[in-house]
Design a protein that fits this description.
Number of helices: 7
Structural class: alpha+beta
Radius of gyration: 34 Å
Strand order of the largest sheet: 21-30-29-26-27
Mean pLDDT: 91
Oligomer: single chain
Number of strands: 30
Low-confidence stretches: 353-358
Shape: elongated
Length: 583
């Protein structure tokens, strides 16, 4: 049957709109606008037919063999609808055959408000009402079904009495499907076209394409959620631009020269049990949860994951963006502090001349815009030198607690600082005091980890020097050689209590030789920061136990330095040999 035989006409994807003034009021669009206040038990038509409704478009679509040639498609319907968020009962409607309508009295009276230059039969695909001005509306239209691929974007600032076309910067063959206004910044607009997303910071006067890694795909819907932009594509999934702060800042206007963008509030999300790794060169997996990804390391030492079969979370940390007019002559720095000025972490753009890869992530320093993501961790502990697995990577510092922080960009003599806030997820019951206590214990453990690692490095350096003396003087000076071996073995006995010595490369691990104090100590923080809660009594007890067991080992090594090493250096001095100097 043709649509002319239907009592009411509905498109396959007709609009369903909740009133912003009353959650019990729902509107839908057919050839007329309907309203319910009882969850669909009954519907009231509140408009006449708001479409052009050319009889030719309402006929049966098929022929004598297949009468339903198009299927569920029905033409001449209200395709876009919105109620003003500022004024209850101000209703805007657009049809798929080119009619824009407005009612300012809850549907009692309607009038056509088409832009004078809007071509006939333009599908009104989106009506976006300004969050900032009650008389302003933006409209997106398409005519690709009529072999017209031009973008049709319009704005009215007087309830449709006058219109301005706003598609400068969008190619003539990239037709528009959706337009959205930023709820925070007036004049900041986003448009979805047949091939991607565009942004305007001057209320539609000019548009620029948002590229990045968004695939070329029809963008049918855009949604601003907090500080994120969500894009619904046709056939290429849902995409999220994680942080709109740069666009909002640019729209408000920024000075020329070096500039640090104010960071958005950062949500602290702990990794929980995370068995994933960032190993370049092959496919990694997310532990037992599946999810393959490949890893690339950029020139500044940051690991980037490209997921093969699942979605990607937003960056885990504070997103810092800054603009440089040129490559600085001296390394720049990014410094993170508490609100009281206590420094937590600092990063530099300095490059190590003797290494192909940086020991720590570098802050990028390219001309133009740069992005750096701080993972909200304190600096890692001292790395253990040697061949055992503990030396493969530095032990990460603990996560900071939610609170007020600052970031400072220093370029030459210029310093730019912005405050930002780290918040916990809103659904967590933990208090600020709980999470401050968690950070406090983790920091105490971390300091002990660092002291232990530093002590192990000093032991290994001393053992290496003593072993060298023992070998070099074995034949020429047996007394010095024997003294060096004796002291070396004493140092080794203390080291064995802390970590398996690196005497046999590839075998210095707790699995083959038993876990030592250092292994046990570094296993404690992951258990404490599994989630957002205060440290347990047991965690405090375990830390106290480890501290009590480590202190005698530190004392034993200090005694070797102050007595035995002193005696050994006295012996070498007597033999007119140079002394051993420790780290």
């Amino acid at each position: 049957h043709g649509a002319s035989e239907h009592k009411y006409r509905f498109n396959w994807t007709y609009p369903i709109v909740f009133s912003p003034h009353d959650p019990n009021t729902i509107y839908i669009g057919g050839n007329r606008v309907f309203k319910t206040t009882n969850e669909g038990q009954s519907w009231e038509p509140i408009s006449p037919d708001l479409t052009f409704a050319d009889p030719e478009t309402l006929q049966q679509t098929g022929g004598p063999v297949n009468k339903d040639a198009i299927g569920a498609e029905t033409y001449a319907t209200v395709y876009a609808f919105a109620e003003s968020p500022h004024e209850k009962g101000v209703l805007w409607a657009g049809s798929d055959d080119g009619i824009l309508s407005l009612s300012r009295d809850a549907g009692k009276n309607w009038k056509t408000i088409n832009p004078p230059d809007l071509p006939d039969w333009t599908m009104i695909s989106c009506i976006e009402l300004s969050p900032h001005d009650r008389a302003t509306a933006y409209v997106a239209g398409t005519r690709y079904k009529l072999d017209d691929y031009e973008p049709y974007l319009y704005v009215t600032r007087d309830y449709g009495a006058t219109w301005t076309r706003i598609n400068q910067g969008i190619p003539d063959d990239d037709f528009t499907r959706v337009v959205r206004a930023d709820p925070e910044v007036p004049g900041l607009l986003y448009a979805g076209t047949e091939t991607g997303v565009y942004v305007s910071t001057d209320d539609g006067a000019n548009w620029r394409r948002l590229e990045g890694n968004l695939p070329v795909a029809p963008v049918h819907e855009l949604l601003v959620k907090g500080t994120d932009l969500i894009a619904g594509t046709h056939g290429r999934s849902i995409w999220i631009l994680d942080d709109l702060t740069p666009f909002r800042t640019l729209a408000a206007g920024i000075p020329d020269g070096t500039y640090l963008l104010p960071p958005r509030d950062t949500q602290r999300v702990l990794p929980g049990i995370d068995w994933s790794e960032n190993v370049p060169g092959w496919t990694n997996y997310l532990g037992g949860r599946g999810g393959g990804y490949v890893v690339t390391i950029d020139p500044d030492g940051a690991a980037a994951r490209t997921y093969l079969d699942l979605g990607e979370n937003p960056p885990a940390g504070a997103i810092i963006r800054y603009r440089l007019t040129e490559t600085p002559s001296e390394p720049l720095s990014l410094t993170f502090k508490r609100a009281d000025g206590t420094e937590i972490r600092s990063f530099s753009s300095r490059k190590e001349d003797d290494e192909a890869k940086p020991k720590e992530r570098r802050a990028p320093a390219k001309p133009g815009w740069n992005r750096f993501v701080w993972d909200l961790r304190h600096a890692p502990a001292t790395k253990i030198e040697g061949t055992d697995p503990a030396s493969e990577k530095a032990i990460d510092g603990p996560f900071i607690a939610p609170g007020a922080y600052t970031v400072t960009l220093k370029v030459g003599d210029q310093e730019l600082t912005h405050p930002f806030t780290v918040v916990k997820p809103s659904n967590l019951p933990a208090t600020q005091a709980d999470l401050a206590a968690q950070e406090d214990l983790l920091l105490r453990i971390h300091r002990l980890v660092d002291r232990t690692a530093t002590t192990i490095n000093r032991m290994r350096d001393l053992r290496g020097q003593l072993d060298g003396w023992a070998k070099r003087t074995k034949d020429s000076n047996p007394e010095v050689s024997q003294a060096a071996e004796t002291l070396r073995d004493k140092v080794l006995e203390v080291e064995k209590t802390l970590l398996v010595p690196d005497l046999r490369p590839g075998w210095a691990d707790g699995i083959n030789a038993g876990s030592r104090l250092f292994d046990k100590l570094v296993a404690l923080p992951p258990a404490i920061q599994l989630g957002d809660y205060p440290p347990t009594d047991a965690a405090e007890e375990v830390f106290a136990d480890f501290s009590a067991r480590l202190d005698p080992q530190f004392a034993a090594f200090d005694s070797l330095l102050t007595t035995d090493l002193k005696d050994f250096n006295a012996l070498t001095a007597k033999q007119k040999l140079p002394p051993i100097v420790t780290l």
